[in-house]
Amino acid sequence: MPYGCGVTKTSPATDHLRPAGRATRAAIEEAARTLFSTRGFEGASVRAIAAEAGVDPALVIRHFGSKEALFLRTVDTSLGIGSVLEGPVETVGRRLVAYFVDAERPAVRQRFVALAQAAHRDQVREEMVRHTAETYVAPLAPRLTGADRELRAALAVAQLAGLLNLLYVQEDPIITAADPATVVALYGDAIQGLLTPEAAG
Amino acid sequence: MPYGCGVTKTSPATDHLRPAGRATRAAIEEAARTLFSTRGFEGASVRAIAAEAGVDPALVIRHFGSKEALFLRTVDTSLGIGSVLEGPVETVGRRLVAYFVDAERPAVRQRFVALAQAAHRDQVREEMVRHTAETYVAPLAPRLTGADRELRAALAVAQLAGLLNLLYVQEDPIITAADPATVVALYGDAIQGLLTPEAAG
DNA sequence: GGGCTGAGTCAACGGCGTTGACGGTGTGAG
DNA sequence: CTCACACCGTCAACGCCGTTGACTCAGCCC
User: Fold this and answer.
1) Rounded to an integer, what distance in angstroms lies between the CA atom of residue B194 and that of residue B141?
2) Positions in chain C where some atom is under 7 Å from a protein CB
3) Contact assignment for B190 to A187 by CB distance below 8 Å
4) How many angstroms away from the CA of A21 is the closest CA of chain B?
5) pLDDT tens, A84-106?
6) Which of A85, B147, B167, B195 is the most exposed place for a label (fewest CB within 10 A)?
């Protein structure tokens, strides 16, 4: 479920809005981005987002339909993985892990945690599935060889999601305390073994 | 985060309770088990659990302290993995995956989903971490050879958690539709590669 | 100028987890 | 035997939540 490689969100049809409407809409979106990141999906209430944006809570719903819809429009499911996937397939395992284990990416961590927290909402779950298929499996599978390419790509995503879960959500002490380079080598190769069995170290 | 191999829950100190108290306590626990399983942590309200048990909502809190505490006492974090872990380490990867991919274990799926939904609560998260360390890493690590045994065991848990996440929570269509035997072979070997690199197929 | 549509306000709904004040009731000590 | 006390349960309410509907007001087009 890592969700990387995102396209810029296509805010649909704000043309019919008047300038005032577009401005408050943007204010709400920014407040939502901030609060969803810092407090998570459950911790960020519609009322708090409205207050942060200096706006009536009802207006938030009026503009975006529901908290879930606001979340989906606001928190980018992308975690910025595009460039990592573009490199050589033979070493993508370690590069993926290295990207996420890097401590200098708090925003990525925040977004993943928020996403994991909201995963039980139907629309969010659907978006996550769609995203996995579109930005992970689709670009990866054609570059693999052998049988079950799509399945192997999907299982590699599962591996990655599991690491991020223990690392970001559970904050597992063993993995957290471990030497990042070791984690990259061990887990990266485990992922690599699924993608290119013949090239795995 | 798979949480298996559980000991029977040690309900602490119900001796001081009168028969009536113990009975309604048991009724609440059973109702909670049912509703948490079928509706998840967020979907099962304290009020609904109380109604199912034929009891006042306030009584639920009075007996268990909070919804989160009731959840922890009620939903067994164990997923029944003990026997799987006891077998030979050289093939534990495939056996673990086979256990969870088996469609005939709906209760395990339900419990995992409920757990994942409640993972953002502090006490639940702590319990999950504790459980990972106690029932996965502790029995597994000493039976491994080579460097970083604890870390490798923890990373194997991460792999498993990732699979269950995509399989149970996200219901990823690719993995769901795939031949279970293939998933067992591919993912089982990926886990095995982390545990016993020399024995991996 | 008059209708229409977008923008914003306000009060309220039903639900949530939780609390506190308040009656009964069974048990053990005097 | 009685009386105090801890347990058991009830009830109404608190403050929060996401969401809705009725309403006002301003700007645009015909």
Assistant:
1) 11
2) 6-12, 15-21, 26-27
3) no
4) 34
5) 999 999 999 999 999 999 988 99
6) B147
| A23-42 core/surface letters (b: 16 or more CB in 10 A; e: else) | ebbebbbebbbebbbebbbe
The C1' atom of C25 and the CA atom of B61 lie apart, in whole Å, by 21
The whole-number Å distance from A120's CA to D7's C1' is 39
Report yes or no: B74 at the A interface, CB cutoff 8 Å: no
- What is the per-residue pLDDT across A157-166, written as a single tens digit (0 to 9) for each? 999 999 999 9
* A69 CA: nearest nucleotide by C1': D18
Place B8 in a pLDDT band, splitting at 50, 70 and 90. very low
State yes or no: pLDDT of B11 exceeds 90: no
- Asked if the Cβ–Cβ distance from B1 to A166 is below 8 Å, we say yes
- Rounded to the nearest 10 degrees, how much is the dihedral formed by the CA atoms of A142, A146, A147, A153? -50
Residue A16 makes CB contacts below 8 A (sequence gap 6+) with none
* pLDDT tens for each residue of B100-123: 999 889 999 999 999 999 999 999
- Nucleotides of strand D lying closer than 7 angstroms to a protein CB: 6-13, 16-22, 27
Q: If you average pLDDT over every residue of chain B, what do you get?
A: 91
Residue B200 has pLDDT above 60, yes or no: no
Chain A within 8 Å of B182 (Cβ-Cβ)? yes
The model's pTM is 0.91
pLDDT in tens, A51-81: 999 999 999 999 999 999 999 999 888 888 8
What single string gives the DSSP state of each residue in A52-107? HHTS-HHHHHHHHSSHHHHHHHHS-S--S-HHHHHS-GGGHHHHHHHHHH-TT-HH
B56 vs B70: CA distance, rounded Å: 15
Mean pLDDT, chain A, whole residue set: 91
User: What structural domains and CATH numbers belong to chain B?
Assistant: 19-73 (1.10.10.60), 81-195 (1.10.357)
CA distance B126 to B130: 6
Rounded to an integer, what distance in angstroms lies between the CA atom of residue B18 and that of residue B11? 15
